[in-house]
Amino acid sequence: MFCLQLSVPLLAASRSKRTAVRCASDRQELFNRIAPVYDNLNDLLSFGQHRIWKRMAVSWSGAKPGDSLLDLCCGSGDLTFLMSEKAGERGKVIGLDFSKEQLSIASSRQYLLSKACYNNIEWLEGDALDLPFSNGYFDAITMGYGLRNVVDKRRAMQEMFRVLKPGSRVSILDFNKSVQPLTAFFQEWMIDNVVVPTATVYGLAKEYQYLKSSIDTFLTGKELEKLALDAGFSYARHYEIGGGLMGNLVAAR
């Protein structure tokens, strides 16, 4: 059961400007290509379970009516819409992503779903490493399948800490880098034998082959907790969900 939601890897500040521009362009093109089949693949490859995991992530964020909320690396907006329902018509939600195509699809979904509370959503193209918001701006933040792909994870966590109000929480859903050999083996088997072959049918094998290496270089639950605490959060807890295949980091400012 896999959620194949992908979010754009943002660039490390240490790279040269010339290299960064080329990589940013390549990544934007990649995520623009997968956008049309993004949601269908999520449903197919996770057997619909990603919807449960996302609801759990939003619940852990502590979002409530009237809040100002941020969904980072929002993709086509699944978490953003759930956050919108929590905030209600008196609240405000910003869905931020690096891919214009993904944001376009999210905006189209907002129009088609035509739910009153969804009028509180604003879509914004932006960089998770340089958030265009003032300090202490948001009451809660979610990030779905984005932190693993951000090059400078420490800076991304520091930015989330900066724009959160004191006492507020961030909830980060992603693949779990399991320390259990059996779980790790099953995760790799699923990618090789289910994920990539299914993506191949859509002509997207190349775009999805990177998953295994991205999980290999990701942080374990304990390492994610330390990352949050080092960024200044007062509390951090990582929960394994989906049979250990997925994980959710909850951190409080």
From TrEMBL:
Residue intervals passing through the bilayer: none
Predominant location category: plastid
Catalysed reactions, as listed in the record: demethylphylloquinol + S-adenosyl-L-methionine = phylloquinol + S-adenosyl-L-homocysteine + H(+)
Domain of life: Eukaryota
Keywords: Chloroplast, Methyltransferase, Plastid, S-adenosyl-L-methionine, Transferase
CDD domains per the UniProt record, alphabetical: AdoMet_MTases
Gene3D superfamilies (UniProt xref): Vaccinia Virus protein VP39
Documented EC number(s): 2.1.1.329
Subcellular compartments: Plastid, Chloroplast
Role summary: Involved in the biosynthesis of phylloquinone (vitamin K1). Methyltransferase required for the conversion of 2-phytyl-1,4-beta-naphthoquinol to phylloquinol.
NCBIfam families according to UniProt: MenG_MenH_UbiE, PRK00216.1-5
Protein family per UniProt: Belongs to the class I-like SAM-binding methyltransferase superfamily. MenG/UbiE family.
Protein name per its UniProtKB record: 2-phytyl-1,4-beta-naphthoquinone methyltransferase, chloroplastic
Species in which this protein is naturally found: Hibiscus sabdariffa (roselle)
